[in-house]
Amino acid sequence: MFDIQTHMDFVGQAKAERWSRIIITLFGVIGLVYGAVVQQFSQTVYVLGVGFLISSLITIPPWPIYRKNPLKWQKPVNTEQKQLSGDSCDEGKKKKK
Q1: Taking Cα atoms as reference points, which of 19, 16, 24 lies closest to residue 61?
Q2: 64 to each of 33, 45, 68, how far by Cα in Å?
Q3: pLDDT value of position 3
Q4: Three-state DSSP state, 17
Q5: Extents of the domains making up the chain
Q6: Reported pTM
Q7: Count of H helices and E strands in the chain?
Q8: SS3 66
Q9: Which of 15, 94, 93, 90 is CA-nearest to residue 60?
Q10: What's the CA angle centered on 51, arms 18 and 19, to 5 degrees?
């Protein structure tokens, strides 16, 4: 029905974390200055809360900017051949004893 991507690559996670820290720090400083000017600590908390909401909206959803470096997975290894060759090695060790 909908093809909604739900993953974020490692580079995208680093970008999202950096953006989150920058936005929250910026709004924290702005809120602190604004709260000091109006002499209301509650205004500082409100501005910081708005920064948190904006940061969450920008960084939590897996936007396409966070999915530009997909992982290249290795091809699966056939484990049946390894088990067969491993069994023959065990039999050879038993015969030597």
Answers
A1: 16
A2: 34, 31, 7
A3: 75
A4: helix
A5: 13-62
A6: 0.70
A7: 3, 0
A8: helix
A9: 15
A10: 10
